[in-house]
Amino acid sequence: MMKVLINILINIFDQAFENFTIALGAQEERKKLIYIERNREEGNVRLWNGYFSETPTYPDNLFRRRFRMNKPLFLRIVHQLSNEVDFFRQKKDCLGRLSLSPLQKCTAAIRLLAYGGAADTVDDGCSN
C-alpha cells in the first residue's frame, strides 16, 4: 500500500514538473523582445538645433507658442527636474544604450501639461 502511494505521489510530482517546464518554456518564448531603433540621439540633436542652439531653427516667439513659456524658464525647469527627479536623468539600459535626454523627457512632459493631450501625441520629436 505504501509503495502504491509513493508511486502515485511520484507520478503527480513528475506530471506537475513536466507542466511547469512546459509553461516555463512557453513563457520564455513570449519574453523575446524585439529591439526597434528609435534614433534617440538624433531626436535630441534635432530638438537642440531646433530650439536651443546659438542659431535655432525656430525663433523665440514660436518656442513660446509651442511650449507656452519662455525659453529661460523652460531650461530652468529642465535643469531642476534632471537634478532632483530620478526619472528625468539620462541613464543607460541593460544593453548600454542611453535613454532619452532630460531635455527630451521634459519637452514631452511639459507639452502634455501645456496642451492636455494624450501621451502618444508628443513622441514624434522625442524618440523618432
Write up this protein.
- By secondary structure, this protein is mainly alpha-helical.
- The protein contains 5 helices and no strands.
- The model has no long low-confidence stretch (mean pLDDT 80).
- Largest sheet descriptor: none
- Coarse morphology: rod-shaped
- Whole-number mean pLDDT: 80
SSE class? mainly alpha
Strand content: under 5%
DSSP summary, beta strand count: 0
Helix content: 55-70%
Instruction: Please tell me the total number of domains.
Output: 2
- The number of helical elements comes to 5
Give the low-pLDDT segments: none
Radius of gyration: 26 Å
Give the SSE string.
Answer: HHHHH
Q: State the end-to-end CA separation.
A: 69 Å
Can you give keywords for this protein?
128 residues, mainly alpha, 2 domains, 5 helices, 0% strand
Summarize the structure.
The protein is 61% helix and 0% strand. With 128 residues, it is mainly alpha-helical.
